[in-house]
Amino acid sequence: xxxxxxxxxxxxxxxxxxxxxxxxxxxxxxxxxxxxxxxxxxxxxxxxxxxxxxxxxxxxxxxxxxxxxxxxxxxxxxxxxxxxxxxxxxxxxxxxxxxxxxxxxxxxxxxxxxxxxxxxxxxxxxxxxxxxxxxxxxxxxxxxxxxxxxxxxxxxxxxxxxxxxxxxxxxxxxxxxxxxxxxxxxxxxxxxxxxxxxxxxxxxxxxxxxxxxxxxxxxxxxxxxxxxxxxxxxxxxxxxxxxxxxxxxxxxxxxxxxxxxxxxxxxxxxxxxxxxx
Length: 277
Hints:
Elements: E1 12-13, H1 16-22, H2 80-86, H3 88-99, H4 111-119, H5 134-150, H6 162-168, H7 177-191, H8 216-222, H9 225-235, H10 238-250, H11 259-275
């Protein structure tokens, strides 16, 4: 029913990359710590609560008779490999602090941002790998709440018994803990809890939820050079080169970082900004 995403609990480094994209001129930058409207769009990592369509859609003379939802699991923590790799953020923290101790540097981070970076503590543990993050629970809980708002007929189900719910609703998930907990959060938002008595056990070979598991050509094509060519051209193009140079200077480096290093450092800045708010 759901596939993976990056956790928002890392909370201090993801803002710098989109911030540079949305603020191309260095003079536009003030303080991330004081930004009341931070950049929130992170592709598939974006929290849905920030981007869903808030306009009510009413179709006259119609009422819903059947509602289908195929949803991804909520925001999860990274894999063990990624958690280990993210420990490099501690070294980055030290490097940035050393950069800003130099007197010859052009200071492009405000004191509040530097203070937040200095206070940041890495707290991910390997046992969190692929587990549902608190943001992930909220993703599905509030998705269900919004469904009740858009389809008031669902409010009647709040008073249903487990037997009535099972006769009117079919809720399925795969066998991973993150999809099970996501389904439970959805049920909690839709019916006010009682997930354990409503949701059947997860299924591994679930064709409706995971149709791609029996599509070998698609699995092979995902990493095919032909299908990633445009992304590669963009990464090597002038816009990304300018972004890399801008981020590198803002962090106090006299040389350009790699794109991979920029990604890791961007996670770090969102971590510090969010954690300390």
